[in-house]
Amino acid sequence: MNEPTEINNAKKTKRFSLWRLLPLVILAVGLIAFFAFDLGRYVSLEALQEHRVVLKGWVERNGAAAVFVFGAVYAVMVALSVPGGLIMTIAGGFLFGAGLATVTVVIGATAGATALFLAAKFALGDYLRARAGPTLQKMEAGFRENALSYLLVLRLVPVFPFWLVNLAPAFLGVSLRTYVVGTFFGIIPGTFVYALVGNGAGAVLEAGGRLDLGVIFKPEILAPIIGLAVLALVPVVYKRIKGRRSAS
Fold first, then answer.
1. 116-138 residue pLDDT tens
2. Whole-angstrom Cα distance, residue 108 to residue 129?
3. What does the alpha-carbon distance between residue 11 and residue 49 come to, in Å, rounded to a whole number?
């Protein structure tokens, strides 16, 4: 029973070559350039406050093109795993309103996360799974069986960094469809909350005040998000209970 698996693993290992790392290398170069040129200074609340009039004017002049550019920049940032997604979401709410910003950010973030997922899966996914031990294979099988539920929980309640949740499924055999669906719907609630913060940022920034980024941790905001995460885990719990009953 183990012989076919070992043969398949050997074939996967042989197919590994350095050129498969090219997509990840390109993303890594982009990440290094982001820090080398100190581009992070443009992704901050201070920068938003300083350039808010210029940004508003740019949006008014360019309309739909501005929305497209913003979404493309967001996608690139997510793909490169650079910090600043939260600030960009707030900026989107400030520039486009909560509704349009949520749609733009969710599409951009999903596109960027998918690009990173595919790059990691293409470069290392098969290779690492071929060399995985029994423990990792068991964890992979368990995660893959309930991948959508787990992804939704990880997206709804950001216990782990966004970039880590983007990468890990690529090494655990998660399908592209499941990854895209879990990412798209899982980030909507948190994105909408921060877009709302940005939508109301104008008056606060004009008065020289500071935005309350901890608003998402308030009970009235956090409770519904946790509730959605619990609902996402219901299929997992149901499968385990059903499995135990079948076994007994």
1. 999 988 887 666 666 655 555 66
2. 29
3. 55
